[in-house]
Amino acid sequence: MEIFLYARLVEHWQGVLLTAGNSEVDKLGEYGLYWNERYECMPEDELRELQLERLQATVKRAFFNVPFYRKAFQAIGLEPGDIKSLDDLQKLPFTTKQDLRDNYPFGMFAVPMSEVVRIHSSSGTTGKPTVVGYTRHDIDVWAELMARALVCGGTTRHDIIQNAYGYGLFTGGLGVHYGAERLGASVIPISGGNTKRQIMIMKDYGSTVLTCTPSYALYIAEVMAEMGIRPEELKLRCGIFGAEPWSENMRQEIEKRLGISAVDIYGLSEVIGPGVGIECQAKNGLHVFGDHFLVEVIDPVTEKPVAPGQLGELVITSLTKEALPVIRYRTRDITTIIPGTCSCGRTYVRVARFTGRTDDMLIIRGVNVFPSQVESVLLEMGGTEPHYLLIVDRQGALDTLEVKVEVSDFLFSDKVRGLEELEKRLVSELESTLGISVKVTLVEPKTIERSEGKAVRVIDKRKI
Ligand code: DLL
Fold this sequence. Notes:
The protein contains 14 helices and 23 strands. It has about 475 residues and is an alpha/beta fold. A hairpin with a 4-residue loop joins strand 9 and strand 10. Helix 10 packs parallel to helix 11. The N and C termini lie far apart (about 45 Å). The chain binds 5'-O-[hydroxy(phenylacetyl)phosphoryl]adenosine (DLL). The site of 5'-O-[hydroxy(phenylacetyl)phosphoryl]adenosine has 21 residues, from helix 8, strand 9, strand 10 and strand 14. The site of 5'-O-[hydroxy(phenylacetyl)phosphoryl]adenosine (DLL) has 21 residues, from helix 8, strand 9, strand 10 and strand 14.
């Protein structure tokens, strides 16, 4: 498979080099092109200077245009002029999703509605949706960042991008779309769903890049196999997947099943949408576009920064957004800052792929459990499919965890003993990883609901 992928990559780059202008070839780094080398590889002291200038402007914009921020600053006796260095970021108050909800729908906007050209919104499954707005300039910046992200992830303007992120209020579809057009690639705005048609189009149009959630990529691979289509019959070579947590094992599984190289892309509506950060071809952490976002990783309880390498909650401050500047936004996403520099030459801070969210973290009998830990174990062990569900319940005073997972086809038709052995091995491995007792229920292939967007992995019956 690796040789086949390598051949496809060489073929692609030969096409790029043959048709690229000199300027494009000049930008060829060890791992491919940069979209905007000046900013992506900016010397660190220059970047810090730019960040400070932009932070000061953002703080002023928020203070003078958003009553919520003015009140929050005044409550702690802070004026925009007090921000004199990047370290002063610590003096600023945090912003939470609840603050956006309290100011629903447009109360956090820093510009009059006449300047807002686009409105997106979160799905609102955990309460009132949060509404986000963009000026024309914000849309322009977003397209630039998504063009950078696509290139960083391995895409060029010679690619045909099948964009299977949902189009609509969700930022995934239009975010990737504008970036792809800015890059000059050919984008297929197919959105999510209608999986057989996705595969037919992928085959007939020769799509080379797939963009969607990792769980949907996996589902596409499954339907492809059912249709008897092998990865070698497609031109697909690269996947840019995000919008939900996924493990390294899941990456390998998707890469194997689709015959592609897959990278992780991160973003959130409140901050801009996709394009806050992305992995490069080194696949060692996500580069955060530091000329547009400042990141901190804090201990969610003490609210103090943690040392690089330690897990904590990612906090983001926007540096260039006009319609909805966010100051120290508590993302609830768990990651760590990766120390050191990256071989791709980008100078941005890198964060590790996300373990989950603080509000995804299940506390079962006092032990912290993340669905991603379960995913890693299931995929590591083999014999099961990457389709699983965590069901948490309470019996009397005791919390229980059941992991429902689909058995691989070849095992399902196997003897009962084989299944019993697999179940035992899974229980033992999960218990030693999680530190709590677990019930494993093996279910028939294709019985757990598939997702065309963000997958639902947990049913917590304790809350019902
Ligand atoms: O999911 C934006 C997006 C679209 C990102 C397409 C990447 C690709 P929201 O719907 O507002 O925005 O959800 C944001 O999704 O706070 C994380 O919890 C989660 N998330 C996004 N990307 C990743 C990722 C979009 N790569 C929320 N890994 C965030 C883990 C992710 N979680």
